[in-house]
Amino acid sequence: MPLAQGVTIERSNPAGLHATPGYHHVTKVEAGQLVFLAGQCPLQESGELAPGGLSGQTAQVIDNILLALASVNAKPDDVVRTVIYVASADRDDLAAVWTQLNDSSLGLAFSTASTLLGVAQLGFPGQLVEIDVTVAL
Fold first, then answer.
1. pLDDT tens-digit profile of 84-96?
2. Rounded mean pLDDT of 21-29?
3. Half-sphere exposure in the Cβ direction for 65 (13 Å, CA)
4. Which of 1, 78, 92, 134 has the CA that lies 20 to 30 A from 26?
C-alpha cells in the first residue's frame, strides 16, 4: 500500500499461519522515518488516571495515541506495529479492549502487526491498559 512519498507498507497473512481477528501476521515497511511512541497510558492531560474502568481507560489511551500521531503528522494507517497490554488474566477483558480499539477512530492501526497481552501489572496504580505504537513515515 503506497502512502506518503517513499513509504510502502505491505501487510500479509502467509499461507500456513492461522486466521487472525483483523490483524496481519507480517508487516513489511519501506519508509524514510520510523516513529516510536512511548507506551501510551490512560492518563489525562492533568496526569490523573482516566475514570470509567477498562473501557474508560481504553478510550483515554485511544485519545492519547491520536494526539501523539497528530504531533508527527501521522494517521492510524501509518502504524506498522502495536503491542497492547491489559492488566488482566481474563480473556473477556482482552477481547473487550481489542473490540473497542478496532471499533474506534484508531481502528486501522490494529490491522497491522499487533500483539495483545494480559499482564499482571502496569506502571501506574490502577492502570489497566497501555499501548506501544510504531509508525512509518
1. 999 999 999 999 9
2. 84
3. 35
4. 92
